[in-house]
């Protein structure tokens, strides 16, 4: 058994995880801090340079070549094919010698003609190992989940054990084991020095054949749904001391910028190693909720947004001590409008127009959370701070939004008291807003895995199940990231279509960012009375919606009439019910949602289609009038 | 039994097939010539207008509302739920009366609590049918492939038969039957007047759970892999006389322009009805090969392309009688360069730059083929014709490329003799080009189904299996459309990534079009000797490629040396082998391929990755030098 926190293991990534040419892949892996790479054979074949040149490039970048792969369909072939396969192996050993790589991955035979005879497989692999050993090389044998006869690591281990050659060992792959619903139970029976190499991949749970699932939908640990951390924990407990490597086949990774993918890979492995008890990371933050939202605006957008906020019951609560920044407040909700020139906010405004540029998150220990974030490759941010103002640790979310981590433990006053001149004695809780319920982000579809990993690893959030929502112009998928105590909720919305609400946002906004913010009250009917509903809320919920919700959920007439008259939407889950309404979008950038959740856990996905239909209508209206 | 060719059946489409708001969907269905629509309930719920308003819109567009759907989870529920469900049905009957639709679709119950008791299901459905009949309405019962207890049409029929109510009948759906591997065997036992309605959908063969497959990947008959024509034939033979309707859930359809989708739907149903023997269409053309390719160029591009063609052995064979058009020839291959101002070609050039604007296809009977094309909603094209020139029937491919149909049966001379002043006595077969082997088109990924249907329905081509090719910057999928005698081959290439060769083409070309053309010889080594290989062919095939192909296919050294020295690629399938080479891309628009196929049936997909890697390198080189 290892001690719980030994030195960190070398980190490795297979070239097939990354987009581009072989030199581009190597550069990206080195830039993300990997110690080594697996060379995926096709990347070498398509490279117009010798294996020796690849060895030199890797060495110059400080990368070890840790594995050459795959060598396919070798063992237990009929007749004279063994001789041909051994000859083929010798040619690959030539390439490996030139590359300077010591280990080759042999994956279990998938050919129909392969013979179902583990003893024969063992014998063939022993011969290959003997040939490898003569040249100082080693052979790792891996069970493919769809192998012809060898599909589990236990079967592969029986063969390796029987072959009993020092140059032959086992290669494990989390996907091949976990995709079959298998575990590493029994791995302690394998001597640690026979665990030659381990490849990690996660994947979303999909009901499809395992080959297609593997070839197109793998992703990095922390991005999918497989119990990869259990796998890693069992493996380290079994005494594995080799590199932690990533092997992912993913259609989106193939076309994504290699450097971003490599950085996600490094974040994934560091998180995985910590979750598996192989290295220590500071614990994730305990969240106490969303403390404030900050909008980047110019003077005109600021006035327009102020009108919207006042309609929702907000009042001006103070001015920043040193910057052109206003604080609006209502009950437990703080909204900051930042009009400061030459600031991070003004840069954000130039790029995206009026929009959320920062989110303040209340945490138990900001320093600990920042240390964890730094170790998980998050980008820290520091802005200018006035003399009496508080310096608040901040990092960038993957969409560039600033995330401030606010921790009042050692402060004698709140950040609002330290940084703002507050208007005393203002009554600011008439509308009854209790908190910011959720902050939804829209992002391009291919970025979802990356965002999920960020919030899961850096902040310890849970990824909820993907919801599918039918926008009139295409499908929108939504996956909420939620802090363990549920007081920070960040739904992530993606759409393959550019014509949906999400797609239109990404075009208008020129990237990914916050596209809606939900304020929560414990008594929505009273809140609606207290605010300027006509100015605040989206009208035109179709009558047909109420007819259906009444038939579907069997609502009593009094509630139905009340919902209908106030233009509210309604949903119910096993935990409780949910009342909500929306505002009109603010210049195709964002909108507000008004919610009351009585134990309900979701986000009203059942009503999203009707909301999107109304918003699409409004947006078409706006486009049409703009055209005239 | 019906006669073989009765009057055509009414055509219907479910609103869920089409993108947009309900009014947009109705307009698209009417514009494509549909007789009616199924109203999918959510489209009504999200519409801000009464059911009566929908009835009026449909009537104004000449559309009947043929079905209201779905009504879910009705039958065989425990306890007091039947009463609640009957009350729910009454509310939907109110909506149907206002809509003016006579039939509702009840799909089989999927709830875990549903009781496994066909007699109970029959009893419940009889009560609902009785309630419907009181209002002059009818109920159609459909088995969902993933229903809790009722999954096949035979089970649904036993329930309908037992209920024995005139207002209750069966609704069939080709997807629900075919996705289970089931057929309509035994459908003759169902009285024709109990076959209330039929919905058609096709789908690609995917190994995934049937619910996800159904919700996201259905497509129109002729776009997928299911035996939908057998299903339709069995159905018509059983005496079904109702509408042919389409019900497709497809993520890409949800965001595609509704009018294009509706037109594809109409093409699909007309083709299906004909294939099923329910209506007659002229037979598809018998192809005799690709007769010519026409490039739209300006003077400069024309000179550059001429240089390329001369390097490949082509010579100038003639000038057009009335237009600025040149004919280049080599063996059996004709290439036309069109520089005519104010022509279809010059329009094409304005839009796409130098590129293929027309393809001449040799057919047995051009008039018959054109009549078929017209009936299948293809767009006919007529250009200006000089006094002694031949008028050639033409239509537009889905990418706008003109397809000329050439039929020399009644002509006393070829189109080259009638339209061109030929240079007599020119020796033009030195290079040994025998024919145009294939013409590949690149298209946006979401257009593939539409293109497949066009070539399959209009030209009777087969769709080959999808090949996946790893471009360094993303996945490319290729599906070849091939005429029955294999002398016209049109590979269709798509990529979700904008960074692949296919993606870069679509950006540079501003749309879909021809991106490579393969010339075929029976003796490639000799052809290579006869042409200017240095100018014509792509150099830099990596050495690593030859090392691998030798190890993988066990090539003898003489062949290997020859391939290597000539820079040729090699592949093999069970039918024969394949030698090929590529030219450098012409301004990111297209390239030529040089092929010899000795019985081989494919397109060298195994070598596409290495070709794309070299081309990506060239393209990066071009970009990089342009940057300096």
Automatic annotation (TrEMBL), chains A, B:
Pathway(s) of this molecule = Aromatic compound metabolism; 3,4-dihydroxybenzoate biosynthesis
Q: Which SUPFAM superfamilies match?
A: Glyoxalase/Bleomycin resistance protein/Dihydroxybiphenyl dioxygenase, Xylose isomerase-like
**Where does the record place the VOC domain?**
289-408, 435-584
Tell me which residues bind a divalent metal cation: 142, 173, 199, 247
User: What EC number(s) are associated with this protein in UniProt?
Assistant: 4.2.1.118
Name the UniProt key words of this record, in alphabetical order: Isomerase, Lyase, Metal-binding
HAMAP family linked: DSD
State the protein's name.
3-dehydroshikimate dehydratase
Q: Which organism is it from?
A: Ralstonia chuxiongensis
Q: What is the lineage of its organism?
A: Bacteria, Pseudomonadati, Pseudomonadota, Betaproteobacteria, Burkholderiales
């Amino acid at each position: 058994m290892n001690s719980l926190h030994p030195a960190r293991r070398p980190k490795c990534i297979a070239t097939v995880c990354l987009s581009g040419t072989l030199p581009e892949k190597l550069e990206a892996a080195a830039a993300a801090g990997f110690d080594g790479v697996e060379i995926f054979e096709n990347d070498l074949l398509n490279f117009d340079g010798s294996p020796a040149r690849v060895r030199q490039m890797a060495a110059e970048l400080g990368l070890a070549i840790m594995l050459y792969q795959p060598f396919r369909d070798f063992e237990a072939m009929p007749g004279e094919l063994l001789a041909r396969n051994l000859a083929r192996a010798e040619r690959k050993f030539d390439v490996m010698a030139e590359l300077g790589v010591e280990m080759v991955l042999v994956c279990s035979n998938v050919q129909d003609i392969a013979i179902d005879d583990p003893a024969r497989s063992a014998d063939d692999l022993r011969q290959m190992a003997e040939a490898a050993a003569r040249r100082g090389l080693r052979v790792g044998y891996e069970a493919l989940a769809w192998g012809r006869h060898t599909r589990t690591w236990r079967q592969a281990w029986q063969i390796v054990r029987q072959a009993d050659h020092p140059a032959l060992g086992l290669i494990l792959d989390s996907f091949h084991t976990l995709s079959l619903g298998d575990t590493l139970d029994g791995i302690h029976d394998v001597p640690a020095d026979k665990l030659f190499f381990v490849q990690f991949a996660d994947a979303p749970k999909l009901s499809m054949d395992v080959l297609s699932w593997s070839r197109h939908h793998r992703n990095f640990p922390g991005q999918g749904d497989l119990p990869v951390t259990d796998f890693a924990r069992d493996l380290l407990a079994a005494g594995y001391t080799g590199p932690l490597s990533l092997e992912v086949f993913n259609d989106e990774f193939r076309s994504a910028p290699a450097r971003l993918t490599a950085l996600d890979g490094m974040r994934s492995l560091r998180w995985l190693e910590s979750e598996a008890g192989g290295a220590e990371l500071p614990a994730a933050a305990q969240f106490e909720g969303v403390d404030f939202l900050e909008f980047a605006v110019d003077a005109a957008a600021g006035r327009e947004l102020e009108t919207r906020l006042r309609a929702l019951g907000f009042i001006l609560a103070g001015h920043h001590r040193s910057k052109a920044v206003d604080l609006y407040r209502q009950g437990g909700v703080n909204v900051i409008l930042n009009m400061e020139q030459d600031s991070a906010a003004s840069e954000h405004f130039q790029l995206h127009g009026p929009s959320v540029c920062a989110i303040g998150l209340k945490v138990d220990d900001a320093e600990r959370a920042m240390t964890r974030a730094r170790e998980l490759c998050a980008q820290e941010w520091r802005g200018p701070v006035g003399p009496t103002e508080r310096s608040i640790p901040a990092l960038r979310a993957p969409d560039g939004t600033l995330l401030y981590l606010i921790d009042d433990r050692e402060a004698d006053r709140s950040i609002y008291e330290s940084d703002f001149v507050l208007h005393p004695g203002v009554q600011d809780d008439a509308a009854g807003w209790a908190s910011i319920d959720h902050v939804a982000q829209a992002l391009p579809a291919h970025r979802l895995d990356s965002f999920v990993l960020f919030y899961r690893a850096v902040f310890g959030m849970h990824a909820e199940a993907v919801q599918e929502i039918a926008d009139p112009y295409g499908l929108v998928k939504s996956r909420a990231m939620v802090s363990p105590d549920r007081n920070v909720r960040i739904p992530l919305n993606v759409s393959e279509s550019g014509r949906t609400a999400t797609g239109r946002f990404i075009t208008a906004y020129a990237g990914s960012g916050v596209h809606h913010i939900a304020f929560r009250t414990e008594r929505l009917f009273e809140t609606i009375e207290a605010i300027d509903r006509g100015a605040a809320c989206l009208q035109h919920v179709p009558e047909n919606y109420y007819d259906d919700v009444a038939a579907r959920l069997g609502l009593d007439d009094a509630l139905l009439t009340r919902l209908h008259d106030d233009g509210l939407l309604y949903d119910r889950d096993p935990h409780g019910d949910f009342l909500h309404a929306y505002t009109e979008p603010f210049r195709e950038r964002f909108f507000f949602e008004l919610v009351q959740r009585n134990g309900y856990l979701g986000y009203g996905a059942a009503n999203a289609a009707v909301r999107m239909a109304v918003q699409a209508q409004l947006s078409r209206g706006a486009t049409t009038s703009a055209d005239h």
